[in-house]
What we know:
Distance between the termini: 51 Å
Largest sheet: 7 strands, antiparallel
Strand content: 15-25%
Number of strands: 30
Oligomer: single chain
Helix content: 25-40%
Number of domains: 3
Structural class: alpha+beta
Shape: globular
Amino acid sequence: MQRIKYLITTLSPILFSKESGDRNMTETLDFIPGRVLLGIFAGKFIKDKKLGNKAHEDEMFGNLFLKDKVSFSNAYIKHKKNESCFPTPFSIQYEKENKDNIYDLLIEPVDAQTKYADGYCLLEEDRINIIKVEKSLNFHHGRDMETGTSKNGIIFNYESINKDQIFEGYISGNPELLKSIYSNEEVVTYTGRSKSSQYGKIKIKFSSEPLEIEQKSESGFHNTITLLSDLLLFDDLGKSDCSKELFEKYLQEKISNNITIIKSFIRPKRIDNFVSIWNLKRPSEICFAAGSCFLIEGIKETDLEKLKELEIKGIGERQGEGFGKFAFRNQRSEKLINDISDPVKIRLPEIEIPETTKKYIQNAVKEIIVREIKTKAITDARTFYNDNKGKVSKSLIGRLESFIKGSISIEDFVKKVIIVRKTAKDKLVGCKMGNDNFYDFMLNKRLNETDAVNAKHLNSLTEDLIKEIYDPSEDSEMNNNLYKIYYLTFFAFLRKLIKKSDVTKNMEEKNG
């Protein structure tokens, strides 16, 4: 297998919209998705070969763009050292009191308050350099399409990646297929949202001819797997999931039954995108976000060749669009030498932000946090259900749900849990929840700030905006509501899983 590296230079601001908490606020991804590159090259191939709407009947077109035989990676910001950066692993965090102390918690835990380093990073042995993509926030007036004039009082906001930045990715696959894509000519095109106005102009240039993929054969390092792009996996029922157990099962099937995941840092992510040929959105899926990382054991020397092959090809679904890229043994040191670049400041408009816009942004921040908390609760509930099948009844979960509904605070909820009857307490103690039993989990559970208000789940734009406009860490009502939202979502989803299981069991008994 070979690959071609490509460089993308932004010639104007670009915008790849993602789901936002407010219809008047359009946020952007801070990388260029592989599916975008696939679409650009597919369009170019159709035009060059004059295939028109018969492209799907062309064998070469099918091999290049429809069958995952060629993989178009995401394009990430390029470092000033002329090296590619990748999403910073979620386990890499710095001390809140001293940003020079950076640790990889996947390798070794530390007794200190830490915060996720965020952004994109260049890892070189025990050194790390983190950079962020430069972005801007632009205010626009809504327009009346009939008159061509601005709509009075209607404002919407675009976040965009700034121009004059360079992103790098690669296309990998069979040498013969890559030859049909490669060209030494620069391609100037438009992509993303609002490309008919002032957004979306980019330049694409291949930085090398197709080359064999070189891999270092190194040993003596921790057996870590770091996701360089989002990973989409389906369970036995064909549903997307991002549980540690599902990924462990996948590794056992692909590599060795001896593999176990002993530690992980996972962030769920919901993905969907618009497919122009369908004129529809894809069904929404939950995946492992890029940056999720795993410490594994059970790897033998005989397994390394399989791992290398998967590292080149990718894992999971939709590999052709850049999903499933990972690095093996890339995280090597528990203490990292700080080489963090100066943080990028978001470029805000040089005008006073209207109060209406501030309100929109505040609501958007809240909606993003709530959405992520709900996603976390659903993921936790599914893991709990799989680990504790048959140990708790739907009625007991319903009772806990009524506790949280009737509580004015998390402390009030805990008081109600403490006084449950011994039979109920014994059932809860007998259930596993992470490293705790479920009873202790509820007594001790405090969604810490990285789960809730510390903007862990927000992009860099929002982190800067909350300093200027709205800081959720100072919103006590918001914080209190997050605990309630988490538990309400957790119990409601868990009750549905138990109910579904009971219905299936009754049908089997009736038919059996």
